[in-house]
Design goal:
single chain, Rossmann fold, three-stranded mixed β-sheet, alpha/beta
């Protein structure tokens, strides 16, 4: 979702990209033949060592369960060869919100990176438009209604890829935590409604309050939906924290609006099915 556009933009900018993946065949099916592939897992230090061989930089974009350990091992293996690490963190990171395990992991991973002494850029993105695909389940479209839903500046993955790749050409971002916010502020439920109307008009729409989502996650048995439902409940209390001004000034503000993204051809919108 966020890895593919970063890879494409880095390659377009002349970089050689190697991807560490559990399945080389799946990675090539998604990313093509322009990448180098190292097959393995981030849980294996030896796999990381092999993947990082002769690399100048590492871009880390993982699930909360794996990112802290991977960052620790990457730093340990860097051995003065890495010129840069870029890390996909998240918005809403404050000490007051550290009770939420995702916030705690992100903060600890950021702290580890800062203390490493390795040049780095931290990206703190809000919600990516491509997550809206998670609300399509068979013949149904699902809309999650928060108790007090905040406005979220959804951004397109293609814009994120451009921004991350641009940071590799410009050292002014080093040492900074940059917030990535899209051009328009809408609630998650409004964004989902607009996406379903534009891309899946034939689906029947189900609308759920927070207490109902807990039941649905058990019925659907889908981890993506479970993760999103969990985040929706969290965002009701956290909202959106941060200022994207510095990121916009350095690397250009995201320009793709939600309506424009919904009507993009499949390939331009990173191959995600509409």
């Amino acid at each position: 979702m966020l890895g593919r556009p970063v890879v494409r933009r880095l390659i377009e900018n002349g970089h050689t990209v190697r991807c560490l993946t559990r399945s080389a065949a799946k990675a090539r099916a998604v990313l093509g033949d322009l990448i180098e592939v190292a097959e393995g897992t981030v849980e294996s230090k030896e796999d990381l060592r092999a993947a990082m061989s002769e690399c100048d930089a590492v871009h880390l974009n993982l699930t909360p369960a794996r990112e802290y350990g991977a960052m620790r091992d990457i730093i340990d293996l860097a051995d003065h060869q890495l010129k840069r690490i870029s890390y996909v963190s998240a918005t809403t990171l404050t000490e007051e919100l550290r009770w939420f395990y995702r916030v705690d992991i992100k903060l600890r991973t950021e702290e580890l990176l800062r203390s490493s002494g390795i040049p780095h850029v931290i990206f703190r993105p809000t919600w990516v438009m491509e997550t809206l695909h998670n609300f399509v389940r068979g013949k149904w479209g699902i809309v999650l209604l928060g108790n007090d839903p905040p406005l979220l500046h959804f951004f397109a993955a293609a814009d994120f890829g451009r921004i991350v790749a641009a940071s590799y050409e410009d050292d002014r971002g080093l040492g900074k935590a940059l917030y990535v916010y899209g051009p328009e502020a809408v609630t998650l439920s409004d964004a989902t409604e607009r996406y379903l109307e534009a891309c899946h008009p034939s689906l029947r729409v189900m609308r759920f309050r927070p207490w109902m989502t807990r039941i649905m996650t058990k019925l659907l048995r889908n981890q993506d939906f479970s993760d999103v439902a969990e985040l929706v409940a969290y965002l009701d209390t956290a909202g959106e924290i941060g200022d994207p001004t510095e990121c916009n000034q350095l690397f250009g503000a995201p320009e793709i609006t939600l309506d424009a993204w919904c009507h993009m051809p499949m390939e331009i919108s990173q191959g995600m099915p509409h």
